[in-house]
Backbone:
């Protein structure tokens, strides 16, 4: 059969390149690159196997058209289903997103084959135990656009304890009245007063709720200057 010799360019190992014999005018000929002539082969020509070290370019192809062999691309070609990552050393791998046991997370479509992976909270997968005061909770801070903030159980207990539902102030200015700004945002508050020295409860003439955050206290006698009375305000609703 007629065979047209084409200019070949080879990259990589030369041990894979072998001579192919043809006949021209009855004589054995070695197919020589760079010679554009017509040869006749007396049998089917079997080209040598080309492995990953050998790439041939046909006539007219420039070096710029050559795609060098890439270990990453070869690795991608052999991957199965999953999310493709390049570890920067060995090549590409197929990975998937998973949730640790008792981590409180559930993963749907972790390999991304059917769509985007999604995460949700799985309360049945939470590791239940009695929390320690040093354990952390995470909240979003509105002023910072929801940036997460960590707080301990102990800090949270202080936040929602007396500081959130109660207020105390010493009345020792020697006057018959005082204004109290408790800022508890409620009119449903209980007011108690006791003497700072004797620790006895004090009954005064009038307790007025000016609004949900302020009180007005009036007594028939002034508290002792220097020691005074302690005013306690407790929110109940």
Residues:
């Amino acid at each position: 059969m007629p065979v047209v010799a084409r200019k070949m360019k080879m990259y990589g190992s030369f041990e894979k390149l072998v001579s192919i014999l043809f006949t021209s005018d009855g004589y054995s000929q070695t197919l020589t690159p760079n010679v554009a002539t017509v040869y006749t082969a007396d049998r089917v020509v079997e080209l040598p196997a080309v492995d990953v070290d050998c790439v041939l370019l046909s006539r007219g192809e420039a070096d710029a058209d050559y795609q060098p062999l890439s270990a990453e691309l070869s690795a991608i070609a052999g991957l199965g289903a999953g999310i493709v990552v390049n570890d920067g050393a060995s090549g590409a791998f197929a990975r998937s997103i998973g949730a640790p046991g008792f981590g409180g997370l559930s993963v749907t479509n972790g390999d991304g084959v059917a769509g985007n992976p999604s995460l949700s909270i799985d309360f049945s997968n939470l590791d239940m135990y009695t929390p320690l005061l040093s354990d952390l909770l995470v909240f979003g801070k509105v002023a910072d656009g929801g940036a997460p903030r960590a707080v301990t159980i102990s800090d949270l207990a202080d936040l929602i304890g007396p500081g959130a539902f109660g207020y105390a102030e010493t009345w020792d200015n020697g006057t018959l009245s005082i204004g109290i700004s408790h800022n508890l945002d409620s009119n449903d508050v209980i007011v108690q007063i006791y003497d700072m020295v004797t620790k006895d409860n004090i009954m005064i003439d009038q307790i007025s709720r000016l609004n949900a955050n302020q009180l007005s206290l009036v007594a028939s006698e002034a508290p002792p200057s220097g020691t005074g009375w302690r005013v306690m305000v407790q929110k109940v609703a």
Notes: The two ends are 101 Å apart (CA to CA).
